[in-house]
């Protein structure tokens, strides 16, 4: 289907089903139950899942296939966001012009940075990309404030031009479909929220995912893999690998720009922190955590990190006491005392420990965890899946 | 076990069970059925406390959370009532807000605009919070204030000192109790004149982002009005940890006062570095060299240790104040936690009470009703003397404290002493003052 | 002129911090081939060794002083450190005053032990793994370490002063014939610079003049051959890791009086130290030191007012601009060896 082989088709269908049914899947616990704290099916987080998914898919095209580890991809994310907000400020709240611009400007930035950085390889390349991104961040935060609005973040003011605003919506929309509008569905004790913005992002993500499968399976993708496995040998065959690597860099930069643009499309503000090295590092972690070079891994990694950031940071002692309320008082306090360092302000600690556990016990990332589960529970069927094209690392 | 933070959802849940019972998607509502965003329809109301829990301001955020919990207890009629007993408005009965029990959710701003907005959004979208409050920096406050305006909930700012929060970036749904850069300048200037005379040369080091700039502008204007000369104003990178290369040239510049427009870790390091260079032992132009830190925070002063001794600055509130309200708050907070509250804790406690009181007086949680009740509201008994919530820009006008690092502290909390209480009239400015110009409140947005 | 001398001093001072951290980082890179994102955390732990020792020395018993009251109006509890009770107020105060230099002795065994445990317990298993995995696991470790420190010490900086004799600053200007106060520099920073020079010199001498160092250098150049010669290179590498951790640790201890330590200071230095190491060239110890001082001095020059007026914001990006220029003109940084971390 659509030029995909059977395995890829089923993977594509799986991802599509997951993405489109996310409001159900992410809200497994009834409202009001103690477990409802773990529900992630609200618009903002669902949007973040797919947006960072796009970011990580794009990053994986560069890192997973060519092995070039960029530590500066957040710069493209930031550029994408600024583009979209500037389009709001100049034209109106329609997200389309901004998204197109964000992909183009991010592509342009990627072309420049990639052209320079790809003259070096290995860690030298990583540090070059890091240097460019940190320069962008530092300048955006201070000297470039007229363009970026610095610390506060770029936002729309009532006295902005907005020449096509007219009577149109006063928040981001796509030809009148307002992004932050939702519909609620109540079934029994459950409540599910269907948000316009989320579905827009999800569809974009599916298209991007499809594109990434096609790239992985194309001769171009093969060429990128060749760069990773042995660049010297590639040189001997008379092929110049750099244009291919640069193409991969630009493509992944455009993915990042699109993700940044979508962030600003869901929430019309572009903060400079989006370009900081921590943001660049985050996408690296997402990709490695999920499974470098696998198709679905980066998306899983993105979901994993965003889930902990948004869900665990919101658990506080009051909630802990509710959870353990069934225990005798002394034991209840003891349990709260034990769990306390890992939640709320300690969510970083939980994340750090999980990073270590995953990389120690699942060398292939979360994808490998999935495969092991499948092998353990899937019986005969799983054995057949072993050379699973969809999840096979690029190397 | 059945206690829940999700009031709106909780009610929808009961409604759904009662009405539909099972399976069929009988209720397929647009989210905008209510009169305003997250209208509480059950027996409780949810507030969202959005504070930095990770990153450099985590301790300040933790202190804010303590104060919020205390405020919630007092609103729900637990504890000793704290400043509810001294507050001039007597509407609050200790039975929650409008008879609804107050519940809360917490989140982590990470002191990043993006993360703060994500956290606030989850409170609004997932937990049904009807008001968002907190924060420890101006960038975050402005970002979250903008979000609350769009979402149609009230934002009660925490610690934010930039002129922009109620100036260029003011919003109809946002309210600030904390003071600002202009007020710091206006309060400090006369004190500095008394201490150091009117013939001084000041050298500014300024954190290179919007808060730093507005404070530098304010202090410069206030001191130049005294006759001080500004020798130089140098921007320092936010990420700087070592300020030696910015401080080394100060002594040679002919300046005899160093103004540090830094906050948090920047302030701790720049002050420590300045004292290391021995600036305070020097005599320039025949006068003792002086250092001024316009915005003081006791929590941060602690990080600079002995270096704060004898250094002047301004602060929103300090626990050593002896009015009844401050004493009541310190007693209430100190009894519960074992140490005195910070100014951040004080301002967020006040904000919570002020919100609750406004809702009670308005008889609704509708942001527009609350905004109307807060606008132009005059009150007393919250530790800062008579205070006005000005309608034009949603800024509180109250006395500002000028403080000095104490020479002989008796305990680890006893770091600052109040030098002067500058009356509100002296720090009041016109709503269209040039430093605050350029923005508009807009219309209050009830959302939905 | 005096301004330039001042900035050179500043640069040397900053540079010595960068060089010390980069030295340890590059030792681990060069000998073990491991990308250690937890190296900044080791520096931070070193600084907190100083904090911990000063807290231990300040352990106090409380006596009630009825003549004063605390913030709640209760009688004030006055704290007296035990050391003051044991050794008399003056000796006690002197011991507390010298807590940072004492912390060097305190920190070395702790850091070496920490390095051993870290290498044997965790890093060892990652020698054969991809660099990406090493990044993930050491970054995870860095987060865990800093969160643990935050849990016990809070997020605020903790003032940890230098001994009183090192307070204040030294007037270089008078010595060189300038006006008084033209060039002053804090004593403790001069001590820091001298200390760094000593440590750096020590590490080099150790690698250059001992058999152990010779084997390690050989191992850095060609691990396999050294292994074939029947030398247990692994054990030596463990020891090198311990040394690298100790270098980062003492750098942190001595840094504590310059800027009050806080739990995320390691992350603040992490990116910078990577830039320094790479600019210096992978696998080159002298390169790392050279790059540390070079970047420190250039950063100081960029913060001079007339430079900032010429190019606004240059002090924010100078490090990165220099890094880009150097890496584009010299493919392996200043003194990098071919084939190290180039894939």
Which tags fit this structure?
heterotrimer; A: 395 residues; mainly alpha; two-stranded antiparallel ribbon; 18 helices; 5% strand; B: 448 residues; alpha/beta; Rossmann fold; seven-stranded mixed beta sheet; five-stranded parallel beta sheet; disordered N terminus
Structure write-up:
The complex is a heterotrimer of chains A (395), B (448) and C (343). Chain A is mostly helical. Chain A is 64% helix and 5% strand. The longest helix of chain A has 25 residues. Chain A is globular. With 448 residues, chain B is an alpha/beta fold. Chain B has two domains: 247 residues, Rossmann fold (3-Layer(aba) Sandwich); 146 residues, Rossmann fold. Chain B is built from 13 helices and 18 strands. In chain B, the strands form four sheets. A seven-stranded mixed beta sheet of chain B has the order 8-7-9-12-13-17-18, sandwiched between helices. A five-stranded parallel beta sheet of chain B has the order 3-2-4-5-6, with helices on both faces. The longest helix of chain B has 20 residues. Chain B starts with 6 loop residues before the first helix and ends in a 21-residue tail after the last helix. The N terminus of chain B is likely disordered. Chain C has 343 residues and is mainly alpha-helical. Chain C has one domain. In chain C, a hairpin with a 5-residue loop joins strand 1 and strand 2. In chain C, helix 2 crosses helix 11 and helix 11 crosses helix 12. The longest helix of chain C is centred in the first third of the chain and has 31 residues. Chain C is globular, with a radius of gyration of 22 Å. The mean pLDDT of chain C is 88. The chains are: A mainly alpha (395), B alpha/beta (448), C mainly alpha (343). Chains in contact: A-B, A-C, B-C. Chains A and B meet through helix 3, strand 4 and helix 14 of A and helix 1, strand 1, helix 2, strand 3 and helix 3 of B.
């Amino acid at each position: 289907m659509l030029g995909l082989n059977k395995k890829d088709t089923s993977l594509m269908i799986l991802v599509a089903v997951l993405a489109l049914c996310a409001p159900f899947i992410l809200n497994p616990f009834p409202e009001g139950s103690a477990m409802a704290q773990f529900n992630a099916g609200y618009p903002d987080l669902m949007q973040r899942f797919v947006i960072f998914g796009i970011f990580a898919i794009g990053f994986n095209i560069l890192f997973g296939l060519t092995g070039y580890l960029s530590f500066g991809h957040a710069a493209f994310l930031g550029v994408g966001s600024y583009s979209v907000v500037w389009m709001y400020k100049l034209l109106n709240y329609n997200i389309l012009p901004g998204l197109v611009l964000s992909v183009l400007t991010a592509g342009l930035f990627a072309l420049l940075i990639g052209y320079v950085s790809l003259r070096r390889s290995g860690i030298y390349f990583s540090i070059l990309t890091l240097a460019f991104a940190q320069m962008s961040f530092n300048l955006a935060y201070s000297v470039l404030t007229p363009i970026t609005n610095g610390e506060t973040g770029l936002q729309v003011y009532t006295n902005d031009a907005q020449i096509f605003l007219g009577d149109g919506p006063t928040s981001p929309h796509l030809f009148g479909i307002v992004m932050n509008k939702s519909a609620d569905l109540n079934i029994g004790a459950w409540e599910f929220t269907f948000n316009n913005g989320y579905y827009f992002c999800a569809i974009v993500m599916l298209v991007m995912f499809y594109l990434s499968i096609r790239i992985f399976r194309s001769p171009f993708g093969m060429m990128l893999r060749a760069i990773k496995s042995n660049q010297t040998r590639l040189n001997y065959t008379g092929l110049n690998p750099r244009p291919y690597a640069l193409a991969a860099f630009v493509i992944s930069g455009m993915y990042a720009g699109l993700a940044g643009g979508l962030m600003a499309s869901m929430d019309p503000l572009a903060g400079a922190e989006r370009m900081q090295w921590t943001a660049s590092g985050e996408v690296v972690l997402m990709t490695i955590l999920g499974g470098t070079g696998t198709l679905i891994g980066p998306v899983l990694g993105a979901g994993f990190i965003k889930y902990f950031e948004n869900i665990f940071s919101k658990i506080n002692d009051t909630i802990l006491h509710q959870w353990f309320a069934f225990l005798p008082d002394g034991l209840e306090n003891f349990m709260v005392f034990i769990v306390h360092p890992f939640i709320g302000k300690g969510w970083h600690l939980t994340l750090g420990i999980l990073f270590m556990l995953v990389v120690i016990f699942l060398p292939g990332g979360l994808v490998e965890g999935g495969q092991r589960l499948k092998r353990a529970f899937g019986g005969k069927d799983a054995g057949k899946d072993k050379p699973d094209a969809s999840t096979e690392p690029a190397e | 076990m059945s206690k829940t933070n999700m009031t709106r959802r909780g009610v929808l849940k009961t409604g759904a069970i009662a009405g539909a019972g099972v399976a069929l998607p009988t209720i397929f509502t647009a989210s905008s059925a209510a009169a305003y965003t997250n209208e509480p329809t059950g027996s409780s109301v949810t507030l969202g406390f959005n504070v930095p829990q990770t990153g450099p301001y985590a301790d300040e955020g933790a202190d804010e959370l303590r104060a919020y919990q205390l405020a919630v207890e007092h609103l729900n009629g637990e504890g000793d009532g704290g400043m509810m007993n001294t507050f001039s408005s007597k509407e609050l009965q200790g039975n929650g807000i409008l008879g609804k029990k107050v519940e809360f959710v917490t989140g982590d701003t990470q002191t990043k605009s993006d993360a703060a907005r994500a956290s606030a959004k989850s409170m609004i979208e997932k937990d049904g919070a009807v008001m968002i409050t907190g924060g420890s920096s101006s960038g975050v406050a402005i970002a979250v204030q903008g979000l609350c305006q769009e979402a149609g909930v009230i934002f009660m700012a925490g610690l934010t000192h930039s002129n922009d929060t109620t100036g260029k970036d003011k919003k109809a749904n946002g309210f600030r109790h904390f003071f600002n850069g202009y007020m710091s300048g206006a309060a400090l200037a006369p004190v500095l004149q008394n201490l150091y005379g009117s013939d001084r040369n000041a050298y500014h080091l300024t954190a290179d982002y919007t808060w730093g700039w507005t404070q530098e502008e304010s202090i410069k204007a206030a001191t130049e009005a005294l006759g001080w000369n500004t020798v130089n104003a140098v921007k320092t990178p936010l990420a700087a940890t070592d300020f030696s290369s910015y401080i080394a040239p100060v002594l040679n510049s002919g300046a005899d006062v160093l103004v540090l427009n830094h906050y948090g870790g920047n302030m701790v390091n720049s002050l420590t570095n300045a004292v290391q260079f021995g600036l305070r032992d020097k005599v320039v132009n025949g006068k003792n060299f002086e250092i001024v830190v316009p915005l003081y925070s006791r929590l941060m002063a602690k990080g600079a240790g002995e270096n704060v001794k004898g250094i002047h600055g301004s602060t929103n509130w300090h626990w050593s104040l002896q009015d009844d309200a401050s004493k009541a708050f310190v007693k209430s907070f100190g009894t519960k936690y074992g140490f005195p509250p910070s100014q951040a804790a004080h301002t967020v406690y006040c904000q919570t009470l002020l919100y609750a009181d406004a809702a009670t007086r308005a008889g609704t949680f509708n942001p527009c009703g609350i905004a109307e009740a807060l606008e132009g509201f005059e009150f007393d008994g919250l530790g800062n003397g008579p205070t006005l919530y000005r309608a034009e820009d949603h800024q509180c006008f109250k006395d500002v404290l000028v403080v000095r690092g104490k020479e002989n502290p008796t305990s680890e909390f006893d770091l600052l002493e109040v030098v002067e209480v500058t009356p509100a009239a002296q720090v009041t400015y016109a709503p269209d003052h040039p430093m605050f110009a350029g923005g508009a409140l807009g219309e209050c947005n009830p959302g939905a | 002129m005096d301004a330039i001398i001042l900035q050179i001093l500043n640069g040397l001072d900053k540079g010595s911090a960068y060089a010390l951290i980069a030295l340890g980082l590059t030792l681990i890179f060069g000998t073990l081939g491991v990308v250690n994102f937890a190296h900044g955390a080791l520096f931070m732990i070193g600084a907190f060794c100083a904090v911990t020792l000063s807290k231990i020395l300040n352990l106090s018993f409380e006596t009630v002083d009825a003549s004063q009251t605390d913030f709640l109006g209760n009688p004030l509890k006055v704290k007296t450190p035990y050391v003051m009770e044991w050794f008399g107020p003056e000796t006690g105060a002197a011991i507390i005053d010298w807590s940072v230099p004492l912390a060097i002795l305190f920190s070395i065994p702790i850091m070496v032990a920490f390095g051993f445990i870290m290498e044997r317990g965790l890093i060892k298993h990652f020698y054969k793994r991809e660099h990406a995995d090493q990044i993930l696991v050491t970054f995870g470790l860095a987060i865990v370490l800093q969160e643990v420190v935050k849990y016990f010490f809070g997020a605020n900086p903790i003032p940890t002063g230098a001994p009183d004799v090192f307070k204040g600053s030294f007037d270089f200007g008078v010595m060189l014939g300038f006006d008084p106060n033209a060039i002053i520099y804090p004593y403790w920073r001069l001590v820091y610079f001298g200390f760094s020079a000593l440590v750096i010199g020590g590490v080099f001498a150790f690698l250059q003049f001992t058999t152990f160092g010779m084997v390690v250098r050989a191992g850095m150049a060609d691990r396999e051959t050294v292994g074939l010669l029947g030398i247990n290179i692994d054990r030596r590498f463990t020891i090198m890791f311990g040394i690298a951790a100790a270098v980062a640790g003492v750098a942190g201890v001595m840094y504590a009086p310059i800027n009050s330590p806080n739990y995320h200071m390691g992350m603040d230095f992490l990116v910078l130290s990577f830039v320094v190491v790479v600019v210096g060239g992978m696998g080159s110890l002298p390169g790392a030191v050279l790059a540390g001082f070079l970047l420190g001095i250039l950063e100081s020059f960029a913060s001079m007012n007339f430079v900032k007026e010429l190019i606004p914001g240059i002090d924010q990006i100078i490090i990165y601009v220099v890094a880009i220029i150097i890496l584009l003109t010299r493919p392996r940084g200043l003194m990098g060896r071919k084939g190290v971390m180039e894939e």
